[in-house]
Specification:
With about 575 residues, the chain is α+β, with helices and mostly antiparallel strands. It folds into 2 domains: about 350 residues, Spore Coat Polysaccharide Biosynthesis Protein SpsA, Chain A; about 140 residues, Trefoil (Acidic Fibroblast Growth Factor, subunit A). Strands 1, 2, 3, 4, 5 and 12 form a 6-stranded mixed β-sheet that branches. Strands 6, 7, 8, 11 and 13 form a 5-stranded mixed β-sheet that branches. The chain has a 4-stranded antiparallel β-sheet with strand order 18-17-14-25, with no helix packed on it. A hairpin with a 5-residue loop joins strand 9 and strand 10. Helix 9 packs parallel to helix 10. The longest helix has 27 residues. The protein is globular. The relative contact order is 0.09. Belongs to the glycosyltransferase 2 family. GalNAc-T subfamily. Its main location: Golgi. Pfam families: Glycos_transf_2 (PF00535), Ricin_B_lectin (PF00652). GO terms for molecular function: carbohydrate binding; metal ion binding; polypeptide N-acetylgalactosaminyltransferase activity. Its cofactor is Mn(2+).
Length: about 575
């Protein structure tokens, strides 16, 4: 079922304006009533109140004046939504947020004849006041002549909001939870505007947010855009300005912000669009081109990786991705997300799917990043045959072109002899980077997270605590300081500058011996627990989880040479 606020072609302007005014009036009446109720509450005398949740992240910098009952309500809502819904319910729907755009943005003029816009708001278990504030801001800050419709897509919320009438009408509701990708596809299929903006519902748009997006798509319909996000703190809901950055990712396909390419900075105009390897989740596109390019991969499950898949596909298949600094959207960063308590398994599955379809022989980088055996990860990624046919039909470029021309800062994970967990005679204990990365590694109970991921390279370096995916980052190298019994962890570039002893000899099932000092990494039994030391070699044997074959190393060498 699809019910949404729509302004169809052929309606007279008066009807369009009346629809918008009616919507705004309804929301203003609702807001006025809320404000009157708030004014009717007597101001409480300040007094010492027992802190019921001293360890809650919600109350770190907010809520000192709340009564015990209010604390209970606020904490309950926080656990439900992942942000301060208690405070949101008490803020005006049209609250002022700072204009954080680059100064030149306010001076820009945009054409009158811009494409029409469908705004799609996606949500799952969202506070009603947050949804209302998003709608109110979109209506207030988008010219009526451009706003064709607002579509709400509810991915089967469990908080009872489906029966609540919103000022824009009803919404599309999934009969079961399908995940972000399917919710976005549902909204796109229902849209009729020339351009679609697919947004989370926990956002607030800034002034003149839509015009720069629509103007850029009017110039080039093959560009997929993303605004610049400002952060809304989950506890006090204060807007924190963010500068424009490219939307990147690592080999595990976790998103990250990073600098634009040097040519953007050479413009010396921070209001100009910047090329980006990917999108960060919120996207704006020509509705028809979005379909032509394959929209979104419906085989992606629940959450994670869908934005990277879109970015790679668009670049390889005839489009481009840009960040628009003059379009800003404030986005609440939830403390926890409603889709799952542990997102890593979902992101891993989706990342492997992206790698299989789009990364050619470079897909091994994703497997290594997730600490999986190369070529045999054993994880069901679903049927990818249709997506591979799409790639053939669109005559997309090879992934190597993407590495060379779009994301050259993505570092190949090569020259590896082995990777994964390292342990010796205590199979339940693994080498770990320790509580303070960059100091002293420890022996700790095996938990399989990145702090225990180790990488042994052909040149003898031994990384502990994960591996970096970018050329501008440095890994943490195991070193022998030359004195004392404790091993050290240093950034590899720093260890090299200081001429620390950072090269090791290690074969599967053998000792780990420093090439310079000839001391070995070994385990001794301390007073309370076993610990790592450097000492004269006694023949202790170590194993690493995954060993790279000589054939695989040869394949990597060939790929690197071809690149």
């Amino acid at each position: 079922m699809c019910c949404c606020l729509q302004f169809r072609e052929g309606q007279v302007k008066q009807t369009k304006d009346s629809a918008l005014l009616s919507t705004v009036d309804l929301m203003k009446k609702s807001e006025k009533k809320e404000q009157e109720e708030e004014k009717g509450v007597k101001v409480k005398e300040k007094k010492l109140v027992k802190k019921l949740y001293p360890n809650s992240r919600l109350f770190r910098k907010w809520g000192d004046d709340l009564s015990e009952e209010e604390q209970k309500e606020a904490e309950d809502l926080f656990q439900r939504y992942g942000y301060n819904a208690f405070l949101s319910d008490r803020l005006p729907l049209n609250r002022d947020i700072p204009d954080t755009r680059p100064p030149r943005c306010a001076e820009k003029q945009y054409p009158e004849d811009l494409p029409s816009l469908s705004v799609i708001l996606i949500y799952l278990d969202e506070a009603l006041s947050v949804i209302k504030r998003a709608i109110r801001g979109i209506i207030d800050k988008t010219p009526a002549r451009l706003l064709r419709e607002i579509i709400l897509v509810d991915d089967h919320s469990s908080n009872g909001l489906f029966g609540i009438q919103l000022a824009v009408g009803l919404k599309i509701r999934h009969s079961e939870q399908l995940g972000l990708t399917q919710a976005r596809l549902t909204g796109w299929k229902a849209a009729v505007g020339d351009v679609v903006a697919i947004l989370d519902a926990h956002i607030e748009v800034h002034v003149q947010w839509a015009e720069p997006l629509l103007a850029r798509i009017k110039e080039d319909r093959t560009v997929i855009l993303t605004p610049v996000f400002d952060k809304v703190d989950f506890d006090d809901l204060i807007v924190i300005p963010y500068m424009a950055n490219a939307d990147g990712f690592d080999w595990a396909l976790w998103c990250r912000y990073e600098a634009f390419r040097p040519e953007w900075y050479a413009l010396e105009d921070e209001s100009q669009p910047g090329k980006s390897p990917s999108v960060m989740g919120i996207l704006v596109a020509d509705r028809k081109f979005f379909g032509e390019i394959g929209s979104l991969d419906g085989g992606m499950k629940t959450y994670g990786g869908e934005n990277v898949e879109l970015g790679i596909r668009v670049w390889l298949c005839g489009g481009s991705i840009e960040v628009i600094p003059c379009s800003k959207v404030a986005h609440i960063e939830r403390f926890h997300k409603p889709y799952a308590l542990d997102l890593s398994a979902l992101v891993r599955r989706n990342a492997l799917r992206v790698a299989e379809v789009w990364m050619d022989d470079y897909k091994y980088n994703v497997e290594v990043a997730w600490n999986l055996p190369i070529g045999n990860h054993g994880i069901d990624i679903g049927d990818v045959s249709e997506r591979k046919k799409l790639r053939e039909r669109l005559k997309c470029k090879p992934f190597q072109w993407y590495l060379d021309n779009v994301y050259p800062m993505l570092e190949l994970l090569q020259d590896l002899l082995g990777y994964g967990l390292i342990n010796d005679r205590w199979p339940a204990k693994c080498v770990d980077q320790g509580p303070a990365p960059g100091s002293t590694p420890i022996l700790y109970g095996c938990h399989f997270f990145s702090s225990q991921h180790c990488y042994y390279l052909t040149d003898g370096k031994l990384y502990i605590g994960g591996i970096q995916s970018h050329k501008y980052s440095s890994n943490n190298c195991l070193v022998d300081p030359g004195s004392g019994v404790s091993p050290g962890l240093y950034q590899c570039n720093l260890a090299q500058q200081k001429k620390l002893h950072m090269f090791w000899d290690f074969k599967q099932g053998g000792q780990i011996q420093n090439r310079d000092t000839k001391r070995c990494l070994e385990v001794v039994l301390g007073d309370l627990y076993p610990r790592l030391v450097l000492q004269q070699c006694s023949g202790q044997r170590w194993t690493i989880q995954h060993v790279i074959t000589a054939q695989k190393r040869y394949d990597w060498t060939v790929m690197n040479y071809q690149r």
